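Lab notebook, bench 4. The sequencing result for the construct came back, and we need a structural model before the next group meeting so we can plan mutations. Quick request posted to the team channel:

Model the 3D structure of this chain.
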Amino acid sequence: MKLASIAAVCIAAMASAATAAPVNLTDWLAVGGGNWVREADNNGVKQTVNGLPAIFHNNENSQGKSLSGTIEVQTTSDDDFIGFVLGYNTGDLTNNDADYLLIDWKELTQNFFGTGLKGLAISRVTGPLGNNSGAWAHDPANNVTELARATNLGSTGWAPNTEYTFDLIFTSSLVEVFVNNVKELSVNGSFADGSFGFYNYSQAQVRYAGLQQDVLPPQPSAVPLPAALPALAAGIAFFGLMGWRRRQA
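Done. Here's the predicted structure in token form:
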């Protein structure tokens, strides 16, 4: 392939990455033990109570998309779980046949229903998510199987009154999680489609804001390319997307 064609591939990927749109939370649904308070512009939400597992999710399939924004625990009270769900469908919180991904981040290690470890992790939920060792200790006997812990934050808790940026990439075979523009999780598998959502368990005053959603660039064509080019183009596109979002904030 000529250099001009290679450049065109990279430019097209960057153009696709610059189409992120603000998320309107008007139609998002709240389930479980939370109290989700939308902000006036419907682009941010705060979960205000210390309660049972709680999810606030959109009502559409989200595979092939990315979700970005900020997350912050706006209190020094408590040390429990904040995070996200991917592939969640209405009713899954109590569904025996649920199959979705849970990304949770705990401030401090604590023994309650088993040992809840501090740090950021991704797990697969395959049944009801209750107030038990599943949600707390990632216990497969209670429907939660941990898949991976974060590269840098796997044993590092979140800090109170500290705003973090996040970027979630969700496809049928790949999930990636970036915190402050650093890739923390990259998991391959076969994942069910469903919603993006926010998740809290036993943690109050958690704010999600500056939310933007984008459609991921299409997969590269089968045209033979130099071995390193697809990774280069994908990297340029993704960091172009994140840089554009930060400039819009």
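The mean pLDDT is 88.
Will bring this to the meeting.
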